[in-house]
Amino acid sequence: MKRTLSAAALVLLAVVALPTAANAAGQDSYGPGSCNSITPASVARGASVTYSCTDFWAAGQRVAISISAEGAEARTLSTVADETGNIEVSIDTQSDPAGTYTLTATQGAVSDSSDFTVLDPADAAAASAADPSAGGKALADTGFASETLPWLAGGLLAAGAAALGVVVVRRRQQA
User: Fold this and answer.
1) Bridging pattern class, strands 62-69 and 34-39
2) Phi and psi at residue 33, in whole multiples of 5°?
3) For residues 38-55, b (16+ Cβ closer than 10 Å) or e, as one string?
4) 20 to 30 A from 59, CA-CA: which of 41, 112, 119, 127?
């Protein structure tokens, strides 16, 4: 009886403690924050695209940005990350010929690359008329915060395991 209760307690502890430890360890194991990359991903020449990153770069340090494409003159610019490591840069495409461009942002050994497309105005209008989602619009934010879901699931699992343990103990006592 004591062995069964001890085993059940260890299983319950493992079920509750391991996901918590994995969640805590996983906070930094996926690297720095995230780059939201370039929006919109496709524009008519003359429009601007925005490159943004959140909590990705070292705070207060300069980030070098290079923009290149086949058949186009490469250009460079730089910006300084704010105190939380965020940057947001608007890139004008007025003088850029149509094509696919690669933007590479670099700070020391850390870099991020994203692509965007510049279209001739006539091609951009035709693409927009044929596909209303053209223009690189992001998906809408639903407001769902999934950080609480694992905790809720773990709590329900622990409660179910405890209830099952009580049923098993009572059944054995009555037998």
Assistant:
1) unpaired
2) -55, -150
3) bbbbbbbbebebebbbee
4) 41
**Global pTM value:** 0.54
Distance of CA 120 to the CA centre of its chain: 31
> What is the residue type of 8?
A
Q: Say how far apart CA 87 and CA 80 lie, in whole Å.
A: 7
Hey, what are 151's tokens?
A: 């905790």
β partners of residue 52: 37, 88
Q: Is 36 helix (H, G, I), strand (E, B) or coil?
A: strand
Amino acid at 156: L
The answer to whether residues 40 and 137 touch, using CB atoms and an 8 Å cutoff, is: yes
User: Cα 101–107–108 angle (5° rounding)?
Assistant: 125
The predicted-structure confidence for 127-165, as pLDDT tens digits, reads as follows: 655 554 444 445 556 666 667 777 888 889 999 999 999
